[in-house]
Amino acid sequence: MRRPIRTSPGPRRWLAALWPLLPLALGPAVALAKAAPAAAMQGLVTRVTDGNTLTVTPSGAAPVVVRLRDIDAPELCQPWGDEARKALSEWTLNRPATVRLSGRDGAGRVLGVVFVEGANLNQRMVEEGQAWSVRTRWDQGPMVRQERMAHSLGRGLHGVSGSMMPRDFRRAYGPCPAVPASP
Questions:
Q1: What are the pLDDT digits (tens) for 39-50?
Q2: Residues tagged active-site
Q3: 122/133 Cα distance (integer angstroms)
Q4: What is the pTM of this model?
Q5: For the chain, what are the domain ranges?
Q6: Where are the alpha helices (DSSP H) in 10-137?
Q7: CATH architecture of 40-171
Q8: pLDDT per residue as tens digits for the range 34-77
């Protein structure tokens, strides 16, 4: 007569006994992760380089070049590039801003979300058709919904024939020559 193969219930019992305690063990770590506020910087916008890069000068500190996170505005040498820079200048130049910092990009610029008078400028640039939402896999991005709305309404660069995402433009034509920024 064959004996049935038995698995040891020991490890399963041990795991089942400890499972209810898992939230207690991880609770403080999860609470700290949720409570940690993003670093922020406040200052005056003193320069706009292009449609997604500006300089913020904190009071009594050196100017900081900030790249608007999650958006990609047209290059200055491509259609709508100058218009995007002018729009960002209009909304930010010589105004106090708060920047929610989120790291650095490959060029060493600070990445952040810029707020002027409580308005999220990164989002506004996309909603007004001045920039595209940065893409991730499967053509998704943080502001694709706003971009599609601007596109359907023909706002900004979406109303210009032949508008091309900057990454595609650079791939086709190479980088733009250096262009002086606004004051």
A1: 999 999 999 999
A2: 67, 75, 109
A3: 9
A4: 0.75
A5: 40-171
A6: 10-18, 22-35, 81-92, 121-127
A7: Beta Barrel (2.40)
A8: 445 569 999 999 999 999 999 999 999 999 999 999 999 999 99
